[in-house]
Specification:
InterPro entries: Bact_Chemotaxis_MeTrfase, CheR_C, CheR_MeTrfase, CheR_N, CheR_N_sf, SAM-dependent_MTases_sf
Catalytic activity: L-glutamyl-[protein] + S-adenosyl-L-methionine = [protein]-L-glutamate 5-O-methyl ester + S-adenosyl-L-homocysteine
Helix content: 40-55%
CATH architecture of the largest domain: 3-Layer(aba) Sandwich
Organism: Mizugakiibacter sediminis
Structural class: alpha/beta
Radius of gyration: 20 Å
GO biological process, one term: methylation
Largest sheet: 7 strands, mixed
EC number: 2.1.1.80
Distance between the termini: 29 Å
CATH class of the largest domain: Alpha Beta
Length: 290
């Protein structure tokens, strides 16, 4: 998932947001989501806040901020605002080298070790394309190896956006995006819905569960002893020191032999005593030490 601030909206009736007000919104967003908004992204944050203020009937930043920041009563509005602040850019099979590492190297090793159940976590799943791609790769490789009857695979996919998760659960996508899915996967994992849309087959959808989760709460999440954590194009929106804290938490959630896959370039010079870097061109991956 790529997380990007939505387009600028202009509302002449509202005053400009000064730097102090902008800094206050930046602090709130980072405190609640971990996402850091750089000063050059100010127009995008301001545009999203102003658009939502107009919809909700607020005429000044101070009253809207007080409403959103209020514990309890402001949480519904906060959830709506987060959906507006974030545009989820993703696609099926977005990073082939990572998926090839999973299917061609990591999964065969797990099967040779006698794995009978594998649990993967897709972080920042947006509208579900990444999670379904993972499930397709794992399911197809299991079938080709003859191990589908002996080994169960499940994917838990999480995001902070209610709207994105609703789209992921619906699993209906424009037919124009069929080309994102390699032909060998299209045949067994998608079916048309009319002429203009397609969906992921029910058999595979049952293997993928979606839930709302803030990555900042990863340490308290009921996800333990994971076999695979797929976290790409998410950490780049966090401060560098926060990224390392989150990575340490993710390392602790992996079982020995588990795989952590990040987006290439999301962290540099990272090392952790529980993890060993995987040598694989075009990927940023770590194995949990046995």
């Amino acid at each position: 998932m790529a997380l990007a601030f939505g387009p600028l909206s202009s509302h002449p009736s509202l005053p400009p947001m000064d730097d102090a007000e902008f800094a206050r919104w930046v602090r709130l967003l980072e405190a609640r989501t971990g996402v850091v908004v750089a000063p050059e992204r100010k127009p995008f944050l301001v545009g999203a806040v102003r658009a939502r203020m107009r919809e909700a009937g607020f005429a000044d930043y101070a009253s809207y901020y007080a409403h959103v920041a209020a514990e309890g009563s402001g949480l519904v509005e906060w959830t709506t605002l987060v959906d507006r602040l974030t545009v989820h850019e993703t696609r099926f099979f977005r990073h082939p080298p990572s998926l090839q590492l999973i299917g061609e190297r990591w999964l065969p090793e797990q099967l040779r070790a006698g794995a009978r159940a594998l649990h993967a976590w897709s972080i920042g799943c947006a509208s579900g394309e990444e999670a379904y791609s993972l499930a397709m790769v794992l399911d197809r490789k299991l079938a080709l190896s003859g191990a589908e009857a002996q080994t169960y695979v499940g994917v838990t996919a999480t995001d902070v956006s209610h709207a994105a998760l609703a789209a992921a659960r619906a699993a209906v996508y424009p037919a124009s995006r069929l080309g994102e899915i390699p032909p060998e996967y299209r045949a067994g994992y998608v079916e048309m819905v009319g002429e203009d849309s397609f969906t992921v087959v029910e058999r595979l959808r049952r293997r993928v569960g979606f839930a709302m989760l803030n990555l900042l709460d990863a340490g308290r999440a009921p996800l333990k002893q994971l076999d695979l954590i797929y976290c790409q194009n998410v950490l780049i929106y966090f401060a560098r020191e926060r990224r390392r804290e989150l990575l340490a938490q993710l390392a602790g959630l992996l079982r020995p032999g588990g795989l952590l896959l990040l987006g290439a370039g999301e962290v540099t010079a990272f090392a952790h005593p529980l993890l060993t870097r995987v040598a694989c061109p075009g990927t940023l991956a770590y194995l949990r030490n046995r």
